Amino acid sequence: MIDFNRLIERFLEREFRPKKIGRYYPSEIGLCLRKVYYSYRYPKEAGKDALRVWELGNILHDFVVRVLKSEKNPEVELLKHEMPLKFDVDDFTIVGRVDDLLLVKESGRSFLVEVKSCRDVSSLKGPKDHHTIQLQFYMHATGVRNGILVYIDKNDLSTKSFRVDFDENLAKEIIERFRILHESLKNGKVPVAEAKQIPEMNWMCRFCEYAERCEKESVG
Ligand code: SF4
Fold this sequence. Notes:
alpha/beta, Lambda Exonuclease, Chain A, 8 helices, 6 strands, binds iron/sulfur cluster
């Protein structure tokens, strides 16, 4: 019998490339800075489950691209998708990939669209902070001042979307977070355990692969 799980597993296997200090990612900057710091200092290979989840996210984004490109939806025009982005700050670089740039024809306005897959869109009351931070950075870096976060349900393709208005002060704070991360990494100084300290970020500790190390360093 053919083992399809094994075929998928092998297909998703990728070369392990640890991240480099001086090169940072907008998708990570809203996460706990201590965790991001650890991911550079003590890199861990993504597990099989994580690779499958990432691939599912890619598949769902491809689906949204097809929807936006479709002639059945003439009110919107997909101007670009998977736009690579490179932004230099001081002595480091931020690299990312903007999901979609969409033109709404009636208003003539263009929007940056960031697509996120999730398990249950009906329970979402608003956009997640770390996703908003990622999109705010993209708006800052591209100069496109309108954003939409679209959550798509993995179970039934239903969606919920949220407008995100550009906030210059928040953009400055985000750049400052990149600076703090960079300086911490250069100097080998572990950032504060912010997900433990900030109630809205507590949930991140439940999914943190560095929880044990973090606990030891918090005590020591
Ligand atoms: S356990 Fe929590 S506070 Fe510590 S690194 Fe992980 S996410 Fe951050």
